[in-house]
Write a structure and sequence with these properties.
- It catalyses: L-dehydroascorbate + 2 glutathione = glutathione disulfide + L-ascorbate; RX + glutathione = an S-substituted glutathione + a halide anion + H(+).
- The chain is about 50% helix and about 10% strand.
- The protein has 14 helices and 7 strands.
- Helix 11 crosses helix 14.
Length: about 300
């Protein structure tokens, strides 16, 4: 059985967190988090699990019975605190061994898990030297894959839907009429990135999509589903992160200041704790897109 790297959510008991060594690094799912779990200080500031577990039941006055007292959402969080962690396989960094790689689809899955406050164990895979066990879990040898109810699931669309169905609280589903907002940005970004002809219209195609998204956010934002983060944001955010880094490096290009709502959207998404913990290193994003640019 392959070894698991611990990447617990903040919802761990304080006793358990206190027994973990303190992290030696921070940010972007640092190996202190991957290998050693969450520090006591982090758990104390971020994890209400021990409080939730302590208040899930209260003793009735004058008798020995235990009466449920926690609301539904609090009970759900408390249950997750003691649940078995999900097993997740993801791409390893190609620039810094032992760090999370540059796949935006993997980050989408990890963002979903983080935003649902689920514990998980992360196994990083060197995709240049895929181990045999990976093909046993997914015959296509692709990641991300997540184990749910003793079954390995592939494809970020399928994984995030399965997570939403199994763990409906807090809800992240995006209404169907909003689910496709911004969905063409990624493909137009790739077209512009690969282009070697400045006059072929690929830059304008990307600008058109970003302008449309800016108008949408102006009327409906700050997020795709209004005031709350939803699955569509967790899908689009990593793609915009790749767009910003790759186009900045290879094209010296950035989102125009005139698209202020898009820029604020990116700033808000990129500054989320869950995003900072699961984002790829910029050098991995640059290296990951190099074949597209050079090819």
């Amino acid at each position: 059985r392959w070894p698991l790297l611990a990447a617990r959510s903040p919802f761990v008991s304080r006793d358990r967190a206190a027994s973990s060594p303190a992290p030696t690094a921070s940010g972007e799912l640092g190996m202190a988090i991957l290998l050693r779990g969450t520090s006591a200080a982090a758990a104390a500031t971020a994890g209400p699990s021990s409080t939730l577990l302590a208040t899930t039941f209260r003793r009735a006055r004058g008798c020995g019975r235990l009466l449920p007292a926690a609301p539904r959402l609090r009970r759900a969080f408390a249950a997750r605190a003691s649940a078995q962690p999900l097993e997740v396989c993801a791409k390893e960094s190609i620039t810094v061994p032992g760090r999370l790689g540059d796949c935006p689809f993997t980050q989408r899955v990890l963002l979903t898990i983080e935003e649902k406050h689920l514990p998980y164990d992360l196994k990083l895979v060197d995709l240049a030297n895929k181990p045999d066990w990976l093909f046993e879990m997914n015959p296509e040898g692709k990641v991300p894959i997540v184990k749910l109810e003793d079954k390995w699931i592939a494809d970020s669309d399928v994984i995030t839907q399965a997570l939403e169905e199994k763990y409906p609280e807090p809800p992240l589903a995006t209404p169907l009429d909003k689910a496709s907002v911004g969905s063409k940005i990624f493909s137009t970004f790739i077209g512009f990135l690969k282009s070697k002809d400045p006059s072929d219209g690929t830059e304008q195609a990307l600008l058109d999509e970003l302008t449309s998204f800016d108008s949408y956010l102006k009327d409906n934002g700050p997020f795709i589903n209004g005031g709350t983060i939803s699955a569509a944001d967790l899908s689009l955010g990593p793609k915009l992160y790749h767009m910003e880094i790759a186009l900045g490096h290879y094209k010296n290009w950035s989102v125009p200041d005139s698209l202020s709502h898009v820029k604020q959207y990116m700033k808000s998404i990129f500054s989320m704790d869950s995003f900072v913990k699961t984002r790829a290193l910029p050098e991995d994003v640059i290296a990951g897109w190099r074949p597209k640019v050079m090819g």
